[in-house]
Fold:
Amino acid sequence: MYKSIALLKCKPGLTREQFVDYYENRHVPLVRSLLPEICGYRRNFIDPDGAFVGPACAERDYDVITEIWYADRAAYDSAMARHARPEIGGRISADEENFLDRSRIRMFVVEEHVSDFGTAAG
Structure:
């Protein structure tokens, strides 16, 4: 598997509920229809009430951590080439304008390591 993570910020003026609703019900189906190379797509919406933040930390400048999986590097490269086409990337960018502060988008390719803890003893 090959994975990317994006840190995304809600567009000013939207409530958290509007942000989540738009992302889940409008943007996700659009992205899935335009980038078929994606084989996994997870959104982790930040709950600010449940956060622990150290006193020296900078203010959080994102509202969701998005994880996207591809079968391999070739699938990722294919998706990025498709995204670079104006008729594809332009539609995605235009839709992002509806709910994201696009000036704050950060995306990383990551090396994922997963620990399997098995089932908990009873």
Remarks:
- The chain is about 35% helix and 20% strand.
